[in-house]
Amino acid sequence: MCANVFGVLKSLFGKPFDGGKRMDHGGPQDQQQHPMEQQQPYHPQHPAMMRLYEVQKEVSSLGPQVCTFSGLQNDREYKRMERELTQLLLQVDQVDTEGKLELQGARKRAAQEVEGLLRYLEENASHPSRLAIEELSIAARQLVDEQVVAPQRAGGVAEINDELVDTLQELVLRLTQIKTEGRVPLRKARYRALTRLCAVQDVLEGRTPQQTLSLPLSGDTHEAVNCINQVMVKVSMARSQLLALLMGLSGRDSCAHLSRILTELQVELDALDVSGNATIRNYRKQVVEEINGLLKHLDLEGEGDDTRRYDLAQNNSIREIEAVRAHVSHLREGVLRYCLMGDLGLRPKAELQSLLTHLDQVDTAKNPCIREARRRAVVEVQAVITFLDLREALACRQPGPDEHPSHRAVWLVLGSLSDLQAQVLGFDGKRADKSYIILEEMLTKQLLALDAVDPQGDESTKAARKQAVKFAQNILNYLDMKTDEWEY
């Protein structure tokens, strides 16, 4: 089997079948060769060995397809591969070994490879994460169909509102949080779903400004306006077709067909004579830009075939973010170490601010997973900054004799929160850990303590309590983020 296949399936298959040599399966029998195997009495031209070689070639051809298949068990491609692998397994079982141990061993290893591919194919297609991806994809498909595609097909106008945009964003966020366990098919499925959903967001966001423009223009203005108006109507129809394609709601159209239609519209616009009229030129320019915005989403049929796209561990932006996180971790350890000694001399706020600036400049390429990775890195930096700010404020605090008792109570809680935040910053466990449960309970108690503070009409106390509540909730959210086992 080819090397890239076994890079993924090494744990399942061991080394590729080699005709008569032993495979390393980790068992004691695999570490010793049978005496007769050392003699290798069977020539490679033996009929049984030749048949097993043929099976190996077919397995080598199917292996890469299995390793990158990202669909479900009811997909046609899944059924085809399952059928071909099952047939190979039957062919291996029918190989006549003549009762010889060497041939039996070779046949067994060939069967194990085929069974391993079948198992890998089934595990990924029925994996809970794959089913979760499909569930969210179906929800997005129904949403777009009901609120955008169906109304336009019926001759109406889809209403793009904040609720629709927010719901789509929530689905994108939930997709980014699905764990793939590093499996290539699951990464690929998640990437494909995210790519399409983000493209729908982009199309809808690009369409929203068009609703506020005073277009189309009157046909009396210029002889070319009627033509541009007609193109604009066709572009609106193409937009609906594109959304249907992205969400799998179109069984007849294809990306290539729609691309040809939009390209023809561009040619039609380019042929128009709009010289001498800046308003018409600007109108045509806006329609052309709209077409270009739709065209850029029509390369999705092969999207995700390039491993570099969905294997974000190799992404340059992710590497930048990880380098920042490593730097933050180093600074955080130093800050906590100094604070443990009661020394506030280490205050790398300027360095932390520069890291925030660096993160802001990281190119996310509109990839939601990269955006989420950057957001989490920003939260890590901000957690250290807020910790330093509160420590400094506590150290400089000089309450006067006239300080309101409720205001003093808030500051007492802030002092406890500062100590708890130090523990949260240094926490490196899981949610099931006892220390996590204790931290969560203590933070919740501080929130209850703040809730019990009666400002008694004092405005400064109200403001201080509000900030303290937000601060405590941010610490809880940060603790939750550190233990949610999120992955790229």
Automatic annotation (TrEMBL):
All copies of the BAG domain together span 54-125, 224-302, 351-392, 406-483
Q: Write down a Pfam family by its short name.
A: BAG
PROSITE patterns according to UniProt: BAG
One record GO biological process:
protein stabilization
**Repressor in keyword set:** no
Spell out the Low complexity composition-biased ranges. Answer: 28-42
A Gene Ontology molecular function term for this protein is: adenyl-nucleotide exchange factor activity
**Signal peptide limits:** none
Identify the stretch(es) annotated as Disordered.
Answer: 17-42
InterPro entries per UniProt: BAG_chaperone_regulator, BAG_dom_sf, BAG_domain
**SUPFAM superfamilies under this entry?**
BAG domain
Q: Basic and acidic residues bias located where? A: 18-27
- Which keywords does the record carry? Chaperone, Repeat
Query: What's the superkingdom here?
Result: Eukaryota
The record's GO CC annotations read: cytosol; membrane; nucleus
Q: Does the keyword Chaperone apply?
A: yes
Name the PANTHER family for this protein: BAG FAMILY MOLECULAR CHAPERONE REGULATOR 5, BCL2-ASSOCIATED ATHANOGENE
Protein name in UniProt: BAG family molecular chaperone regulator 5
**Organism, as annotated:** Crenichthys baileyi
